[in-house]
Amino acid sequence: MSLAGRQVLLGVGGGIAAYKAAELVRELSKAGAEVRVVMTAAAQKFITPLTLQTLSHHPVGVDTFDLQQESTISHIDLADRSELFVVAPATADLVARLALGMANDLLTTVALACRAPLVLAPSMNVNMWQHPATQVHIQTLRGRGVRMIGPDAGDLACGWVGAGRMAEPSEIAAGCATVLGETQTVTQDWAGLSVLVTAGSTREAIDPVRFIGNRSTGKMGFAIAKAAAARGAKVVLISGPSELATPAGVERINIESAVEMRDAVMSRADVQSAIFKAAAVADHRPAQVALQKIKKQGAASSLELQANPDILAELGVRKFGRVRPVLVGFAAETTDVERHAREKLARKHCDLIVANDVSEAGSGFGTDTNRVMLVSEGGVDRLPLLSKDEVAHRLLDRVRSLVKSA
Ligand code: C5P
Fold first, then answer.
1. Residue 231: which domain range?
2. Residue 406 has pLDDT above 50, yes or no
3. Does 110 sit in the ligand 1 pocket, CB within 6 Å?
4. Are 177 and 198 part of one and the same domain?
5. Which residues are catalytic?
6. Assigned domain for 2 exists
7. Average pLDDT of 240-247?
8. Separation of 286 CA from ligand 1 center, angstroms?
9. Cα separation of 10 and 154, whole Å?
């Protein structure tokens, strides 16, 4: 992936690794990026703005309220013109402030105003990195689609050994190129539209330890969220437990059970142009959830179940405030795929069913490829075996034509 001609904003935090920011500016510039730099007050104790200004050939932003700087290029201009915002080093303090959405200096103010993908290269003492507060902030940021590069493990400047060392500048620059590559040259035909995607499996608790689940990994739903965001949509991804990283620029809401998924979907359903229900939702849940772990001795030999809400069917008959979103359901089948898909299309009142035979090799759960058919009232469109990313784009092409023009 090339950085040639791309506008990269580098935010430098106040940690010892700030000295490596100079090398990072060089790496990014060498790869062709136009680099602008903003620094926190603490960063200036480790490296001077003059160094980074000399290397980047642009004035370095250090103060939100600097009249001269604001008249040359305002903090909003900085945010607007950047195609990627990379913060290196991202100290524990900066990670916390970014997670909380604070805007109490230039760097965090620009971050809040910036719509470009955010990449962080964390750098801190191992105990600060492992502290639950930091880890919660990191999860929050990941949940918003922020990418993390590092930290690496090794000897730390503070004398400790462990995770916390900032990734090497060359690795950070390569990560920036990858993230930019994902958003490059993709048509922005979903710009101004909102999309809701559900992904993964649900977990229906039996007791505090056990649950009923299924084999869905979330790959298809995550691919749709990623593709929609890359094409300019505002995406909310409602996901069951999944190991997958949140795609850049996607807002992620984690849920466990079908009931939680229903509540999350309904609370966000009204403002969407399209809803993709890629999640494999459990049809049933245990009628009773035991408050304590059920012991082997004396456990009942059968489990009483009750039906879960059918979220898609509920959406199908919902009175939407504004325009009805295009409703896309998924059907994972092992036999009679087309017949089942047609039946679902009618029963759940949706606009399109993406159906696949999960018993076919290379199709279905956990694979990176899928062979699907798009079933609508108008007929069936059979797609070849494609990567899930490619399926996502083909699906978005089709659904975009069904969305009433914004
Ligand atoms: O009926 P079936 O589960 O095969 O339908 C699959 C489609 O319905 C998927 O889009 C799935 O997300 C959705 N669904 C749902 N709520 C359920 C069960 C399935 O939204 N309880």
1. 194-283+306-400
2. no
3. no
4. no
5. 158
6. no
7. 92
8. 18
9. 24
